Amino acid sequence: MILHLPALLLALGSGAPAPEPWRDLRVEVSVDPARNAEPLTGRVFAIFTRDGTRPPVEQVSPTGVPFFGQNVEDWKPGTPAVIDAGVFGFPVESVADLPPGEYWVQGFVDVYTRFERADGHTVWLPMDHWEGQDWKRSPGNLFSTPQQVRIEPDGAQVIRLVCDQVVPEVPFPEDTDYVKRFRIESELLSTWWGQPMTIGATVLLPRGYDEHPDARYPVDYIQGHFSTRAPGGFGRGREFDEWWLADGTPRFLLVTFQHPTPYYDDSYAVNSANSGPYGDALVNELVPAVEERFRALGEPWARFLSGGSTGGWEALALQIFHPEFFGGAWALCPDAADFRSHQIVDIYGDPNAYFNDHGWYQTARPCLRQTDGEVVYTMKDENHYELVVGDRTRSGGQWDVWEATYGPVGDDGYPRRIWDKRTGTIDHEVAEYWRENYDLRHILERDWSRLGASLEGKLHVYVGDMDSYYLNNAVRHLEEFLERTSEPYYGGEIVYERNAPHCWGPSTRELIEKMTERIRRTSPAGADLESWRY
Questions:
Q1: Residue 491: what are its φ and ψ, rounded to 5°?
Q2: Are β-strands 24-31 and 276-277 bridged in parallel, bridged antiparallel, or unpaired?
Q3: Phi and psi for 292 in degrees, rounded to 5?
């Protein structure tokens, strides 16, 4: 239909009411009492797809199929939770806007746990069950069998889904000759959260570990997302395996941490107002447990950090916040080390995270790009995806964990938003809290007179200049400060790779060689430089 100008202006007038949903479609999701007899608090989803070859829940992502989420509290089994036109969804905002046609639809329930925290707040959050804070595979969550339906073009329609299946436990991997794992209950974290909280480590042993019982080893603590796989890719690549087991290879322990939180698969390795004392738990509980069990040298000159992306930020943060405990950090493509470039947002100067306002028009900010510049999705897309997964910073997603880690606690006990999740409007008071507590470049510049002597030669950063998440921008800010340092000069290195995406950087082999050279140059007189070089 073509509207003539007067009719068009009338339709676009500021006083025109929002259009009503054109279809009365509702989904009723319930839980089979035979599967769960107790009331639940959590979040209920209805997920739609046209692809029936795999379960709809497996097709949910920031570039995936339509899904809709609704909170439930003290929800009794057998009672339907209703998802209708007023429930927010992504990438389709309302079930009323789903195009007519054939779909597969599935119900899902993310079950929350009650935490009575030591700070006096009581919150409901998804407990990690050693799956790495992934709601789609978290043990104890419930789901329905996918059901084929036809959505009609108009009229009233009800879809009923019964969640009668439970996500099973995740089996803990068995040890091998070279790969060892352990978990401990953290006293610090359990006290703070009011629930038993577990942290752990996966350790790759060097060749000859059992045959050299008097040898003690340097350690590379590799930071990153939750995983119980062997560190360094051992067992998954012939080239690394051959080098690790070869004559002449420096004999190190490679260690990954497992420290999932109720907000993410990883704590970001720092103390946080919302997540608790994870930095203290790792340094004071987990590292000593590793070094006692596996004959580490246990000295700062032989204790190193590496990691990429999330792990790159953690490697820098652990080194900066514990400058004398670790002997050096090698960070690949770190998350934003300067919040003037929180990916592509300046949280201090920009009014909105999702759009640049140019007066007569707006441009959407990208979030993920390819190396040719093609945008995969925008800031608004990923944030709205997270908002459907969970409100109050409960999505287990990337933007939400930064909010939970870097931000203050809100009056309701949940993290205070850095920006309005629907609109993108930035709260600059929260941004100032981020700056003073977690902006690594700002902290280094503010405190260099105190930190510099302990960090000399310890900070090394590697990034592609076409990083997929624009993380090279913050590295530039960090470099600008570090290159100005004096008394002492920082003495590390920052390296860029032309046209390289996320997450470019040296191989584990190259990093171990760099760490070995640092041991040679910085170890104190009388240090053990021989027992581990067999």
A1: 70, 15
A2: unpaired
A3: -75, -40
